[in-house]
Amino acid sequence: MTPSQAIGYALNQTSAITAIVGTRIFAGNRISAGSTGTIILPAINYFDLPGGIRKNGIESVTYSINCRAKDKATADQLSRLVVDLFHGTASTGIYGTMNNFNVARASLRNLQGGIFEASFQITEQVYNCSVDIQFVYESSTIS
Questions:
Q1: CATH fold of the domain at 3-141
Q2: What pLDDT shows up at residue 90?
Q3: 110: exposed, middle or buried (C-beta count within 10 Å: 0-12, 13-18, 19+)?
């Protein structure tokens, strides 16, 4: 399992999150509007940010988790649930084994406020509340 898969697993195993987004949790860049210009919301997408560190068998990567909805209140609610899932600071946060993936630490790095996204490719309003988390694990954990 990769770090990206472990994050997806954690998000999909959180019933408060899936009650809102269903199965619309995606790894990778921004959710595509498709040919109709419509995105089915609410949804979450996540991806790793540049600047990961690998030293002495330990890797540390920052992921951006983007909570999108048609209204700011739902986007905010989703981001709070993500913060609750990956809570903590530099020395705390979730840790242990997630579906055979050993996590040294996953903790909150940054919580952005709700941002209205305007795009010529999207025919509806979209709010995005982004949460950045730091994910630390042993290099040997990746399968």
A1: STM4215-like (3.30.2000)
A2: 44
A3: exposed
